Amino acid sequence: MGWENLIVFIGGCALIIVAPGPDILLAVARGLGQGRLAAIASSCGCGLSIFIHSVLAAFGLSLLLQTSLIAFAVVKFAGAAYLIYLGVRCIRSKELFQPSAASAVSLARVFYVGFLSNFLNPKVLLFSLAFLPQFVDPAAGAASLQMLLLGALFAVMTAGSFCVFGCFASALSAWFRAHPRVAIGLNWSAGIALIASGLRIATLKQEQS
Q1: What is the mean pLDDT of each run of 10 residues along the chain (209 residues)?
Q2: 3-class DSSP state for residue 2?
Q3: Contact of 167 with 177, CB cutoff 8 Å
Q4: I need a labelling partner for 127 at 20 to 30 A (CA). Which of 2, 71, 150, 153 fits?
Q5: Is 107 within the bounds of a domain?
Q6: How many structural domains does the chain have?
Q7: What is the pTM of this model?
């Protein structure tokens, strides 16, 4: 891949990364509620899911989402149900934005939630299948290997950017803990946003090639 093509790829990834979504919401929320380590754990979970999407796209497994109505429906409704579940849990148990470290969930769970919230999103799977091949150079070697490398770069950029956002948010944690009532509004807002994301995913229609 030439430098010009690589710069375009990086620019496209940057625009996608900063777009509002449940993954960046989780990273910022963990930074505010539990600090830098939680923000990093959530960000790394999201990054890992993106790399796995790239692996699936590189080996053509994501084509199932375009050719199989059943596979698409399973992934779509699983992802929608999980995000809606997170949203309802966020509102009811107030576990996303937490004013005290004593009520913090484990880093393993933070990583797991960050991973699943992105991995079960069919939009991300289809994006990997449509976006990565555009930057593959047939003269540069195996297309699958190039897609894996591009996917790894995208995953590292995403995880790194979310870590920055989450760690910056953690700087506000002292004020956040001094105003515990704010947590109620933040949990409701985050819960509604997650539920809305789940409902949008549930209404996705398969785009067959």
Answers
A1: 79 82 84 87 93 84 66 77 82 64 74 88 75 78 83 93 90 72 74 82 66
A2: coil
A3: no
A4: 2
A5: yes
A6: 1
A7: 0.75
